[in-house]
């Protein structure tokens, strides 16, 4: 039995046109990949995400 989690960028408000998606075995890994995606694809600074933003993004991580 395997467990996986995924994040689809298009689920994020305002990112509907982004095809980016990450899948990993743990939520921690999904977070790292999400942050990397945000930097590379959107020029964002994950270090600047506040608790509200992180809380919202966390709701977008789903069992894959
Ligand atoms: Zn994206």
Name the descriptors.
64 residues, alpha+beta, 3-stranded antiparallel sheet, 2 helices, binds zinc ion
Per-chain topology:
Blueprint: E1 5-8, E2 21-24, H1 27-42, H2 51-58, E3 61-63
Antiparallel strand pairs: 1-2, 1-3
Bound molecules: zinc ion (ZN).
The site of zinc ion has 7 residues, from helix 1.
Task: Characterise the protein shown here.
This protein has helices at 27-42, 51-58, and strands at residues 5-8, 21-24, 61-63. By secondary structure, it is of the alpha+beta class. The chain has one domain (5-63). A three-stranded antiparallel sheet has the order 2-1-3, with helices on one face. The site of zinc ion (ZN) has 7 residues, from helix 1.
Summarize the structure.
The protein is of the alpha+beta class. Helices cover 38% and strands 17% of the residues. It has one domain.
The backbone outline, from C-alpha atoms, is globular
Number of domains: 1
Low-confidence stretches: none
Oligomer classification: single chain
> Could you give a short account of the major beta sheet?
3 strands, antiparallel
Bound molecules: zinc ion
Radius of gyration: 11 Å
Please work out how many helical segments DSSP would assign: 2
Strands of the widest sheet, in order across it, are 2-1-3
- What gap, in angstroms, lies between the N and C termini? 13 Å
Q: What class would the helix/strand composition place it in?
A: alpha+beta
> Mean pLDDT, nearest integer?
96
Q: Can you give the helix content as a percent range? A: 25-40%
Strand content: 15-25%
- What's the total count of β strands? 3
The succession of helices and strands, N to C, reads: EEHHE
